[in-house]
Design brief:
This protein is an alpha+beta fold. The chain has one domain. The chain is about 25% helix and about 30% strand. It is built from five helices and seven strands; from the N terminus they run αββαβββαββαα. The N and C termini lie far apart (about 80 Å). This is Large ribosomal RNA subunit accumulation protein YceD. Pfam families: YceD.
């Protein structure tokens, strides 16, 4: 694994799992798609996310056209990722299950839709996310699934029974706030001045 994020360079690095849906071919009744990442996509995802491995990645999407030319994409991404326990350094697997609810819109509509999002932020209602752009007439549900999978990764994976063991040492009698003062007294203050 490389030390960097792996997000520079070839497009494959940026989008390890690409599955394009042509919006012109989405019927008025909507489209249901299920996708499964192949070995190459899983390996590329693991490199980008700096994981030991991506064991599996599956996504199911419903894409519904809206009257304003945008598309409402809902779905779920499920997968298993191989990580390393931050406590024991043992290899472990974690399950990921993330829901997706995103609006895709033609790029020219996004500024005005973003303004609506800004206006909604001023109200007490729940703020919708700004829409994602439809790029070249396509929605990349593979990228959408990858982003959701990455969001679900535990940044501090631990085995269920792993606990941090604190190093407990016997207290050093010389290691207390007044140890330095005591040492000074013993060095210079133990002798009584001569004379008298």
């Amino acid at each position: 694994m490389s030390g960097g994020s792996g997000r520079q360079g070839a497009p494959r690095d940026r989008d390890p799992w690409r599955v394009l849906v042509n919006v012109a071919q989405i019927p008025e009744t909507g489209l249901h798609r299920e996708i499964e990442a192949d070995e190459a996509a899983r390996k590329a995802m693991a490199e980008v996310a700096e994981l030991r491995e991506v064991v599996s990645a599956h996504a199911a999407f419903d894409i519904m056209p809206r009257r304003d030319g945008s598309y409402h994409v809902t779905g779920r991404v499920q997968g298993r990722v191989g990580q390393t326990c931050v406590v024991t350094l043992d290899p472990i697997e974690n399950a990921i299950d993330e829901e997706i609810d995103v609006i895709f819109a033609p790029p020219e509509q996004i500024p005005q839709m973003a303004d609506l999002v800004d206006e909604a932020e001023d109200s007490d209602e729940e703020t919708p996310d700004p829409p994602e752009p439809i790029e070249g007439g396509f929605i990349d549900i593979g990228r959408l699934a990858t982003d959701a999978l990455f969001l679900g990764i535990d940044p501090y994976p631990r085995k269920p029974d792993a606990v941090f063991e604190r190093m407990v040492e016997a207290p050093d009698p010389e290691d207390h706030p007044f140890a330095a003062l005591k040492a000074l007294q013993e060095k210079g203050g133990g002798k009584k001045p001569k004379g008298g």
